[in-house]
Design goal:
With 227 residues, this protein is an alpha/beta fold. It has seven helices and ten strands.
Length: 227
């Protein structure tokens, strides 16, 4: 599902955020991406959904080299990836319900299915009673949960998350990781960037550790598989 081969990401200043990174994550796997702030976790996620392009090397997502995608092909790639950003990227001129529903509308779902599926997604993150409120009225943790509901409502084949529990207490953090684990059990590929090593150890999925733009323990290559 995700394959990096000798990937370097170099900024115009010359700073190398990633240095010859190689790894393969099979379809239907769940991995944690860990490391200190600035280790390169967010850079890897940006390359996956093509918010950035590698300076060297190749990034292949579900068999497609992201650098070779045309402008028309890029939206198709992104519709297959649920992304939870650190800064949420919510629409503050629309209520909670509409923030999640829009993700389904853009993906072309049957309008008759949207209300029920949106309510289930909000229920999963404990926000169903807030669905008519504006996101600006939510706490930081609630906005984080709303972003998670929006990213997972379509049950995309790949979910990537950048510190999804960073603004949550331990109990809600466990609940959110359990939600990701449920998606994994249903066949979704999940990659969660986190600095919470205790939570990652508690859940027990494989870890990819980073330091200064390099992988400390790259996962061993294996065949595509489902849980």
């Amino acid at each position: 599902m995700i394959r990096f081969h000798n990937v370097t990401l170099r900024y115009p200043t010359g700073y190398e955020a990633l240095k010859k990174v190689s790894f393969h994550l099979p379809k239907g796997s769940f991995h944690f991406l860990t490391g200190h702030s600035g280790a390169g976790k967010s850079s890897i996620l940006k390359l996956i959904y093509r918010a950035a392009l590698p300076s060297e090397g190749t990034v292949v997502i579900d068999g497609r080299n992201v650098a070779q995608l045309t402008p028309k092909q890029l939206p198709l790639l992104r519709r297959g990836i649920g992304v939870i950003f650190q800064d949420f990227k919510l629409l503050y001129d629309r209520p909670v319900f509409d923030n999640v529903a829009l993700a389904m509308e853009v993906a072309g779902h049957d309008p008759g299915r949207i209300p029920g599926q949106v309510r289930r997604a909000l229920q999963n993150v404990g926000l169903l009673e807030r669905m008519h409120q504006n996101p600006i009225s939510l706490s930081g943790g609630e906005q984080q949960r709303l972003a998670i509901a929006r990213a997972t409502v379509n049950r995309p084949p790949l979910v990537i998350a950048d510190e999804p529990t960073g603004n949550l207490d331990k109990e809600m953090g466990r609940h959110i990781i359990t939600l990701f684990d449920t998606l994994y059990q249903q066949g979704t590929t999940v990659l969660v960037a986190t600095h919470d090593l205790d939570l990652a150890a508690e859940i027990g999925h494989p870890r990819i550790d980073m330091r200064d733009g390099e992988l400390i323990n790259p996962p061993q290559d294996q065949e595509e598989s489902s849980p």
